[in-house]
Specification:
2 copies of one chain form a homodimer. With 597 residues, chain A is α/β, with parallel strands linked by helices. In chain A, the strands form 4 sheets. A 7-stranded mixed sheet of chain A has the order 13-12-9-8-7-6-15, covered by helices on one side. A 6-stranded mixed sheet of chain A has the order 5-4-3-2-1-14. The first copy, chain A, is elongated and about 85 Å long. The termini of chain A are far apart.
Chain lengths: 597, 597
């Protein structure tokens, strides 16, 4: 193993356990139970220290829950209990902690920090407070938390000098890890709550390597696992040595504890006074070799597992065990059903086909084949007579039946009302089947295809769904090939001409995820009028996106907390047809008649 | 007028205009037009300086729109045009500005600031960048903006030394106004984008007085006007002298320009080098007395005007001019209809009664009387045959008709589907009629009573609606008295016993707005089991609130961006019946069978 000329003292090791737990926001008792189990496990393995994820005790993210005083109090009380249960393995437990009120970027004091509590031998030995608080994309930590003010804090565990940094602390290049290494840290322990997107695992690996090499310290990076509303923590914890070489990698998307001996970085002079966790000399013991790293999962399979875990956890953590969804014979419903069947067990999924008058027979047949292939319950409720009577009711007011597009939207909303009624009566949670492409260009009727309590495919572009269906079928035929082969309907009526999904998905990705402009797209070879039309549709449909259920983030920017535009927004650089102009009555001089006021 | 012993030099004045404009997010051309009109007006009045609101040119809040490079470029280009149009009245124009990238609380560089550009005689003379970036409640400025780093910047306008601070800058007690006064500022010009809630106008008045007295400087506080998604800017701009005495107050909820001579604070030594806007000696001119301050509006009337303006602007700024809503004979629909009629003109509102089988005749009659009283269009679509055929369709699957509560929800969702169909066909924007009380305790079916593109009463407690109805009727009978007098139905079936609305609204307000705990409520005299039941219902229904349309914020904490809890949240301190326990399979040791995985 290369050492880049540095002398790693292989005899000086710290036995480190990492607990990649599957915690739940707000579930202090349940999370504490998981933490205690991992503490026992680590102690049995003779670990010097066990590292838990960021906010292991409280769950992540907390949003405005952290503003509830009674919650902060309860977390502190639960931490005290954990401290009393700690033994001779030091524990680094992610939690929240009250701190001296600090006002740093606006006029409001914050008095709660994101912290890592160090427990040992029945006591709380000290607390590190996260310094860097991410405040972009899905993160809003600066909203409610106070930043820590001691980036260079050190800890003595036996003969090792240890630094503790939390998640974002690692990413700046000149943050707490650098301060700690400069002050004498020989190893960095890093609790994280790092959510998945397609580029994240490679990014983490590169980061951890870089931090280790820059600071000549091994890095123990511990992530959590599980779905929490819009995000999924994918685990994949990492341990690298002081050269950045991989010592261990946890599996993604499942909980585990690991334990290995980590060679310390080169000893160096210590600045300041480390907090002593304990000063016992190291035990005589046999070297514990690192277990083999978990194999890396191919890209689309990561997405599949992310969707399954995100869907499962949304239901399970909300006390539900069964789901209902509409089956249409289309690819969206097919992949949603397949994800739900794997997440919950097929016996806990009900598919309801609601064919409209004139729906092709083969689509209904495919819906049934899908249900059989997945082994889920299946039911048919013909929609024709229902929408007919609604249309009759509307006819007098509208002066005739609705036009084609309103009719499609009416059918989609009627289907949704039926699914909600089934949910209300039977307790199955309704899943929405819409995908990111429709949400992007506004072709999903509000409260229609996107109706439900959770939308597994909300962040999946249409073209990805075909790859996911093929991937699922590798484990045995489940999704009828005719569903995969049927060309998707591309709207060309009131929407104007749209490109194929293959082109559409690329344009949307470049615009939303990479911030490209029309100029960039044209330079990259996309047809200018077509690209302009797509960008305009994206800009025009924010209001629809705001009323959708949460879904699983898998791309670098997902609609929701991650990417929010104003609904009322006259910025339409790509509009070719502006519609009625926005006219706000101007009344600049007091005493003038109020005009349209 | 008392001077607290300080010598105000009444001969040394600055003629200040304020432009309380009604701008639109993203509407650079339209906003620039309003700014130009006010610039002309101020120049005609011989003003030395005209002050615009915060982000006057771009609108506020921008959310992730500011991440679009092409928007930042376009704002800069539009500002250049405004600069070229500027004359001998200096202009303080709120806008965004690119700045040197700055990283202050996490690892992401921000390179756009919230700024006040100073324009004069065809040129941009300089830019002040907001230092304090609010990041709580409805505000998320730290998400995308870089903070300014020159809190003590000064400006020379003629013989006056001027400080410019922006909104949050004013609120810290030791921020830019204090730095500027200490450096020599004789007057503070303050652009704001300050949204309404019931306690805001009094809070602003107290703040401005305090800042003026603390710094011995007059303060010119200019706010904008208008609805923007969930918030309404209510104007009410203020000018106080160096003793904090009111010189002028703009009206609330309407645009205007004002102009008056403001006596400067006492001259003091100047630290640093003010940026010279111009150094002309003051013109010989007659003193321009302050116009009479706008009268203060009673509390409930402020709310009424806020709802009307918020609803009007949501529609108008989104290019719509007409609305449709369901009329039920209840108070919610009545107040929503009355607000809509005033916001859009009664001729632009369609009320549709959709009585269920067995709905009382007097409620249908009241709906019709309401429509007549308000002068809105009215139509009846009986729901009975529609829900009957849906229930028939469901019967086989459900093994009979749905139970009572699911049936009510089905009726509400069917009504919503009908309103959407009308909207799709006729272009009227559907308004939701639900109120804050139902949203708080989860008694509004998702996509039922809260279905629509905008929900005017989303932040109005039920008890407030009766006061608003009475207030509306003071201007002529419009809402039938029987609607106001009819006791509201309080659910007692599956929901358990709930207190009267009068008590319920107090409990909800104390819990959500004041952060009180059950203990606090009991200490204040509320019945413990009843209060506990309410808090549990509030905790349990976050998922319903997330799929609601935007509405008008009127309280100190409104659901939406202002107050967001995790949906998946096992924290249930007030639960008496927990429902099925949350069981997350724990798989702590790698190699174990994955269990429920």
């Amino acid at each position: 193993m290369p050492t880049n000329g540095r002398i790693l003292d292989r005899d000086r090791t710290l036995r480190v356990a990492g607990a990649q737990i599957r915690n739940v926001v707000g579930d202090l008792a349940g999370n504490a139970e998981q933490i205690l189990a991992a503490m026992s496990h680590a102690e049995e393995a003779g670990a010097d220290v066990v590292v838990f994820p960021e906010l292991a005790l409280t769950g992540y993210p907390l949003a405005d829950l952290v503003l509830r005083e009674e919650f902060v109090d309860a977390a502190a009380a639960t931490l005290d209990e954990l401290a009393r249960s700690s033994g001779l393995t030091a524990c680094v437990v992610g939690t929240i902690a009250r701190v001296h009120p600090r006002r740093s970027w606006d006029v409001r004091d914050r008095d709660v920090a994101i912290s890592a509590a160090v427990l040992f031998d029945g006591q709380l030995r000290g607390v590190y407070h996260k310094v860097m608080l991410p405040n972009y994309e899905v993160f809003d930590e600066a909203r409610n938390f106070a930043p820590g003010s001691r980036p260079d804090a050190l800890w003595r565990i036996g003969e090792a000098i240890v630094g503790i940094a939390i998640c974002e602390d690692l990413w700046s290049g000149d943050g707490p890890p650098e301060a700690q290494a400069a002050a004498g840290a020989e190893i960095l322990l890093v609790p994280n709550a790092s959510p998945f997107h397609q580029e994240k695992p490679a990014g983490r690996r590169a980061l951890v390597t870089e931090v280790a090499r820059r600071n000549a310290t091994p890095v123990v990076y511990v992530n959590c696992v599980g779905g929490q509303d819009e995000i999924v923590f994918d685990g994949g914890s990492l341990v690298v040595d002081a050269d950045g070489e991989l010592l261990y990698r946890s599996p993604q998307f499942e909980a585990e504890c690991f334990c290995l001996d980590v060679p310390l970085g080169p000893p160096r002079p210590t600045a300041g006074e480390p907090t002593t966790v304990h000063g016992r000399p190291p035990l005589q013991r046999r070297q514990l070799p690192a277990p083999p790293p978990a194999p890396e999962i191919p890209a689309d399979a990561q997405v599949w597992q992310c969707l399954v875990l995100g869907t499962r956890d949304f239901l399970v953590k909300n006390g539900r065990s069964s789901a209902v969804l509409g089956l249409s014979g289309g690819i969206d419903a097919a992949v949603t059903a397949a994800v739900a069947a794997e997440a919950l067990g097929p016996e806990n999924v009900l598919g309801v086909a609601m064919p409209a008058l004139g729906s092709p027979d083969d689509e209904l047949h495919d819906a049934e084949l899908l249900a059989v292939g997945l082994g889920i319950e299946y039911h048919v409720i013909p929609l024709g007579s229902i929408t007919a009577v609604v249309r009759d009711g509307l006819a007098e007011l509208l002066g005739g039946a609705p036009d084609e597009r309103p009719s499609e939207a009416l059918a989609a909303r009627t289907r949704a009302a039926i699914l909600w009624a089934i949910s209300d009566q039977l307790g199955h949670l309704p899943l929405a089947t819409g995908n990111k492409t429709e949400l992007s260009v506004g072709s999903a009727a509000v409260h229609g295809d996107m109706a439900g309590v959770f939308a597994p495919l909300k962040d999946c572009p249409k073209t990805l769904l075909y790859r996911l269906a093929a991937l699922r079928n590798q484990r045995g035929p489940a999704i009828p090939q005719r569903i995969i082969d049927r060309p998707p309907t591309v709207r060309t009526d009131a929407w104007g001409e749209l490109p194929s999904y293959a082109v559409l998905d690329q344009i949307v990705e470049r615009y939303l995820e990479r911030g490209e402009t029309l100029e960039d797209l044209v330079a990259a070879g996309f047809d200018a009028p077509l690209a302009r039309r797509v960008l305009q549709l994206v800009d025009d449909s924010e209001f629809q996106r705001r009323q959708t259920p949460p879904g699983v983030k898998i791309t670098t920017r997902a609609f929701g907390q991650d990417l929010r535009m104003p609904i009322t927004n006259a910025w339409r650089p790509y509009a070719t047809d502006h519609g009625p102009p926005v006219e706000v009555p101007l009344n600049p001089v007091r005493g003038d008649p109020p005009g349209a006021e």
